[in-house]
Design brief:
The chain is mainly α. The mean pLDDT is 93.
Length: 83
């Protein structure tokens, strides 16, 4: 191979190495950003845990009220039919 061709190959390799270095820097910065995002997400999940518990309790209470209303309606219907 002649020197020009070797120089071109060497330049391409150098360009590729520079590009990979740039990718490594970007990846490191994104890793830091991801760690911060995970930390914030964990904090928000911990903050929402009591809200989720409250919603479950209210939902259960409404189901109980609905069940009791259905039983009362059945009893009242049976009273009307038996009279």
């Amino acid at each position: 191979m002649d020197d020009k061709r070797l120089d071109r190959i060497e330049k391409k390799l150098d360009d590729t190495n520079e590009h990979l270095s740039s990718i490594d820097v970007t990846l490191a910065a994104q890793h830091v950003s991801l760690k911060e995002h995970i930390k914030r997400s964990d904090m928000l999940e911990a903050k929402l845990a009591p809200v989720e518990k409250h919603v479950a309790m209210v939902s259960g209470a409404l189901k109980l009220i609905g069940f009791m209303a259905a039983i009362i309606a059945i009893i009242e219907g049976a009273k009307v039919i038996l009279k």
